[in-house]
Amino acid sequence: MIEVERLFKTVPSGDGELCILKGIDLEINTGESAAILGPSGSGKSTLLGLLAGLDIPTSGDVRLDGQSLVGMNEDQRAALRAQKVGFVFQSFQLLPSLTALENVMLPLELAGVTSPRERARALLAQVELAHRERHYPMQLSGGEQQRVAIARAFSTEPAILFADEPTGNLDATTGAHITELLFTLNRERGTTLVLVTHEQALADHCQRRFEMSDGELREQAVCA
């Protein structure tokens, strides 16, 4: 499902160039859940953005379901994301002028899905927010906003879901609820789940775990 080969990412810096990713190789199979751990600044969010086609590498290749992102323009990458990818941001990224229901409806409408309102309502009910569908993001708690974001990410039934620090802005109780919700939807829909986190407890829910350090990625051994 996800194949990465010799992935490098460098950016200009005051001293020349800063190498953020140093030849990453990675393969994640359909339906697997994988966590990328590492401290701030280690390159894990950069890697996630490249996997989702939100950024382009300096060199190397990323393939999603056999399709190479390298060589695609932004419109082509956006079309592929619309077909196959959901993304949950740490900062939620809900549109403030839309209600919870409208935020979930938006990708469905863009995809031309029949009866987007009914489908969005069913998703909000699944994340226990049916009673908040007419509320705007500023009227919702952090945990409620993240649940709306998760419902939106799953709305088009993506083959792959990327989540960047999905519990990073939440208290422990709310974070545990969001974790349970992510993995329940992952199991029920067979979605390939890749998340970035600095929390080992969240990573422990995943089948596979990777450690990012100084731009290099290593898989952790998982005890049975």
Task: Explain the overall architecture.
The chain has 224 residues and is of the alpha/beta class. The chain has seven helices and ten strands. The chain has helices spanning 44-51, 74-84, 100-110, 116-126, 142-154, 172-189, 200-203; strands at residues 2-13, 16-28, 33-37, 59-64, 67-68, 85-88, 160-164, 192-197, 208-213, 216-219. Helix 4 (116-126) packs across helix 5 (142-154). The model has no long low-confidence stretch (mean pLDDT 89).
Question: Summed up, what is this model?
Answer:
With 224 residues, the protein is of the alpha/beta class. It is 34% helix and 28% strand.
Major beta-sheet overview: 6 strands, mixed
Order of helices and strands: EEEHEEHEHHHEHEHEE
* Helical content band: 25-40%
Structural class: alpha/beta
Tell me how many strands there are. 10
Overall geometry comes to: globular
From the structure above, extract its key features.
four-stranded antiparallel beta sheet, six-stranded mixed beta sheet, single chain, alpha/beta, 224 residues
